[in-house]
Write a structure and sequence with these properties.
The structure holds two protein chains of two kinds.
Chain A: H1 2-30, H2 42-54, H3 59-89, H4 91-104, H5 113-120, H6 124-148, H7 152-160, H8 165-203, H9 207-217, H10 221-249, H11 251-259
Helix pairs in contact in A: 2-10, 3-4, 3-6, 3-8, 3-9, 5-6, 6-8, 7-8, 8-9, 8-10, 9-10
Chain B: E1 7-16, E2 24-34, E3 39-43, H1 50-57, E4 65-70, E5 73-74, E6 82-85, H2 89-92, H3 99-104, H4 114-127, H5 143-156, E7 161-165, H6 173-190, E8 193-198, H7 201-207, E9 210-214, E10 221-226, H8 242-257
Parallel strand pairs in B: 3-8, 3-9, 6-7, 7-8
Antiparallel strand pairs in B: 1-2, 1-4, 4-5, 9-10
Helix pairs in contact in B: 4-5, 5-6, 7-8
The chains are: A mainly alpha, B alpha/beta.
Chain lengths: 260, 262
């Protein structure tokens, strides 16, 4: 019992810190120690948050941000995995594409926003491209690494059972490289969320990023913090969902490591 | 049951990195004929290129010279009807598939219903005594059990020739003895041709009809010796026969008297 209780006690202590900070802030605002116009009381932010949700104003911006992000995330990831498998399996393809990758990859992607706005305007195309670019490279690099690490014994085994290069890629290489691919997907999930918010802030007409800037510009500070909280919760939920998916798909990878 | 097929190696040579300083002449000039349904073992000192030899026979790597043929058809890549049993069974099983899923991999290209494939593979799992472990994962099994999964998978492909690359070298002695018996029984039942590469002289004599002795690199076949021991073989009684001991003495003498590899 004691052993089982211990981790829970640890989590309890971790939650206690933010609660204590919020309580301190609440008291400070109540005493007038902090400028209420810039930092509203946590209770006021909470009331605003409840109001946003209960009046149904959450769904449209959330839907905007999520659909934009996932469209770009899924398309760029699928493309990166396909290109990564080809580059990982074919020396010729790697030599052909590697210099291009190394030129674009190190660029901080937000720096590409100004030229992209020139070419694509401030519509959804531009946002899809910038999020897609941010997502593409981590998935690509990790896929290449994973594909190169695939045990040649597995590939030879499939060859002796008559499997050709195409079926070896889908049945052997892809699943064997999946732990690496997921590492890339996890990095890209964080980057994708950052870029979608930045793009919305700069050139948005809806979405959570746009709202945070819009509320700040119109001095609706309480609302701004409420949307910030929503964004934090979204990031937490996405990460949680990702870990659940990873546990379900890669159970064999972790078990194998444990077994030695 | 279809018969085993004939494997012919004609003046096969293999040179790695030819024309460079790192040039290695792995195989000298190997000519060998494995008869249909025969069990032939290749023994040789470690590092003599036994695995290279087997991989060339399987069409996994190309020879530098000479020809490999299966029933008279030239081997350019892994041919149909040939299955290779790897030494590293842990690495040849897919950890993301169940035991049954690994066996089914052997015949997923074949035209048959899912149920039919499943039944067939369950039969082969039963043959190696693993029918109760079908839904486990390879990493949940012991080393000997994993190699039995690999054997069941090899059999599911209905091979006409089975190449065994030291498949019993990394399990404990008792498990090895069990696997010897299993392979002997399956070979007798199913009539495929078998070629085993090993450094274990006892194993080679117990299982084989003939034994080919390889020299140090660049390897050549020094001699081919028929074992002339009665079948069916018994893993306990056969090694006690005077003819077994005599052959064992001779082979060990041959393998140890050669100069140590530089």
């Amino acid at each position: 019992m004691l052993k089982r209780a211990a981790p829970l006690a640890g989590i309890g202590a971790g939650i206690a810190i933010p609660i204590a900070l919020l309580a301190a802030l609440e008291v400070a605002v109540g005493m007038g120690a902090v400028n209420r116009a810039l930092v509203p009381a946590p209770s006021a932010v909470w009331t605003e948050l409840v109001a946003i949700i209960s009046r149904g104003k959450l769904w449209a911006p959330l839907g905007d941000t999520l659909s934009l992000m996932f469209t770009a995330y899924i398309c760029a990831s699928v493309l990166a995995v396909i290109v990564g498998v080809i580059m990982g399996r074919s020396r010729a393809a790697y030599n052909l594409l590697e210099p291009l990758v190394e030129v674009i990859r190190p660029l901080p992607k937000p720096a590409l926003l100004p030229p992209l706005i020139l070419f694509l305007g401030i519509g959804n195309e531009m946002k899809l491209v910038i999020v897609g670019l941010a997502v593409f490279f981590p998935v690509l690099i990790n896929t290449i690494q994973g594909v190169r690490g695939v045990d040649p014994v597995l590939v030879d085994m499939a060859r002796t059972f008559g499997y050709g290069p195409g079926r070896i890629a889908t049945r052997i290489v892809l699943p064997a490289a999946l732990p690496f691919i997921f590492t890339g997907l996890r990095i890209s999930l964080g980057l994708g969320l950052i870029l979608v918010v930045v793009a919305e802030m700069l050139a948005g007409t809806g979405g959570i990023g746009y709202l945070i800037v819009d509320m700040q510009r119109s001095f609706r500070v309480t609302s701004m913090y409420a949307w910030l909280f929503i964004l934090a919760a979204l990031g937490f939920a996405l990460n949680f969902a990702f870990e659940w998916l990873e546990r379900r798909l890669l159970f064999w990878s972790r078990q194998q490591e444990k077994g030695g | 049951m279809q018969r085993g097929c004939e494997l012919t190696l004609n003046s096969v040579t293999k040179v790695y990195s030819p024309g460079t300083e790192a040039e290695v002449r792995a195989l000298g000039n190997i000519t060998l004929n494995v008869e249909p349904g025969e069990f032939l073992s290749v023994v040789g000192p470690s590092g003599c290129g036994k695995s290279t030899f087997l991989q060339i026979a399987a069409g996994l790597i190309g020879a530098s010279g000479g020809q490999v043929a299966l029933d008279g058809h030239k081997v350019n890549g892994p041919p149909e009807g040939l299955v290779y049993l790897f030494q590293q069974y842990t690495r040849s099983l897919m950890p993301w598939r169940t035991v049954l899923g690994n066996v089914e991999f052997a015949i997923e290209g074949h035209r048959m219903s899912r149920a039919e494939r499943r039944d067939r593979c369950m039969n082969f799992l039963a043959m190696v005594g693993l029918q109760d472990f079908a839904s486990r994962y390879p990493w949940q099994l012991s080393g000997g059990m994993q190699q039995r999964v690999a054997i069941a998978r090899a059999l599911a492909a209905e091979p006409r020739i089975l190449l065994l690359d030291e498949p019993f070298s990394s399990v404990d002695a008792l498990t090895r003895s069990d696997l010897h018996e299993l392979v002997l029984r399956l070979w007798e039942e199913r009539g495929f041709t078998a070629m085993l590469v090993t450094h274990d002289v006892d194993e080679a004599i117990l299982l084989s009809d003939r034994i080919a002795v390889l020299s140090h690199r660049p390897s050549q076949i020094v001699e081919t010796i028929p074992t002339e021991l009665p079948r069916p073989r018994d893993r306990i009684a056969t090694p006690e026969l005077p003819a077994f001991l005599e052959l064992r003495h001779y082979l060990l003498d041959q393998l140890t008297k050669r100069p140590a590899h530089a």
